[in-house]
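Note to self: keep these together.
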Amino acid sequence: QVQLVESGGGLVQAGGSLRVSCAASGRTFSSYHMGWFRQAPGKEREFVAAISRNGESTYYADSVKGRFVISRDNAKNTVYLQMNSLKPEDTAAYYCAASAYIGGNGYNRVGQYVFWGQGTQVTVSS
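Structure:
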């Protein structure tokens, strides 16, 4: 079992930056692949970024590639999402997720993740 707690959301102007964090409980954080997803009102939850257990592999949605950076610190049991050049369409609740196993190329699939945080709201004003 792992518990995930997101933090760092807030209100930012378009073009600005924000970093959200996800702290995980337990001593086996390095055993989990981690992902960030987001969900805007009335829309389905969508993939944002993911990172492998050791941090060597990262994956991004096309909509955030080149603007967002995912990273992790296994010593601190924390995964980060640095968001730059934010746009109003980035407004959403951001969720981190964890899974000990990701099948195939399933990093971008909601169903591949077992544990989820409660989310942190990011609002980008125009």
